[in-house]
Specification:
It contains 9 helices and 3 strands. By secondary structure, it is mainly alpha-helical. The longest helix has 28 residues.
Length: 247
């Protein structure tokens, strides 16, 4: 007997449905993107092999974030298409299953697919350059940092894909630009209100000192908020946004 909230077979079948439904458009986009990366990488490997050292950080990691966020922004396109939205909303799949499937496709599955494809391209480029041992330079600390930050930012764009009906990507970018400015101005007003000025404020990555008051471990606190709190909060927000659309 399956739960109305979550069922593994339903979840699996829904993911297969999404892959089958968008297989053609996703395949064309992937061929164009990875074809371009392949040409650039092999060109560098053949004509300027020393440039391969900077290739992962200079090209692959940035493309991972950009392409992933654009892909995420389109993950709920059925929901915003008039002739498809009814079928999507009436599928025998719970809201939680739709959210999990969308997150899996646009975050861990996308990361694994992109990493596998670009690592293969990088390996071929190092073979062309005659330096196959360089292939291991792909998995640097910057790679893991890019993955960690992408998995946080991606949840914001997942919410934007569900909330905004048109121009999801651009509107979500606008939110990311405006919201920190509003929060920063609000924090500045609080500082001016309670401490009477900003002349005695000293800010560094680990602590904030206001007059003689020291706020320690600021960096650790911000990392916890960023990596452990923001992602789950945005997924929860996306769940209720999707739930509201289905009412």
């Amino acid at each position: 007997m399956y739960s109305n909230l979550y069922s593994t077979p339903r979840q699996y079948n829904f993911i297969l449905r999404q892959l089958s439904l968008f297989r053609q458009s996703w395949s064309v986009a992937a061929a164009a993107i990875f074809g371009l990366l392949f040409i650039i990488s092999v060109f560098i490997g053949y004509f300027k092999s020393t440039g391969l050292y900077q290739l992962p950080a200079g090209l692959y990691y940035g493309f991972l974030t950009l392409i992933g966020l654009i892909f995420t922004s389109q993950i709920f396109q059925e929901l915003h298409t008039p002739n498809r939205s009814y079928a999507f909303l009436t599928l025998p799949v719970s809201t939680l299953e739709k959210l999990i499937a969308s997150w899996l496709l646009s975050s861990p599955i996308f990361i694994l697919a992109y990493t596998a494809a670009t690592f293969l391209i990088y390996l071929i480029s190092t073979l062309v350059a005659g330096m196959p041992e360089m292939a291991l330079e792909y998995f640097t600390d910057e790679y893991w940092s890019t993955i960690a930050n992408y998995m946080v930012i991606q949840t914001i764009f997942l919410w934007g894909a569900c909330y905004f009906r048109k121009n999801n990507f651009l509107k979500t970018v606008l939110v990311l630009v405006v919201l920190p400015m509003v929060i920063g101005l609000y924090a500045l007003l609080l500082i001016l209100l309670f401490f009477g000025g900003a002349s005695n404020i000293n800010i560094n990555p680990d602590t904030v000192t206001i007059n003689d008051t020291v706020l320690p471990n600021l960096g650790l606190f911000m990392k916890i908020l960023w990596y452990a709190v923001l992602g789950p909060y945005m997924l929860l927000t996306t769940y209720f946004t999707l739930k509201e659309r289905q009412l």
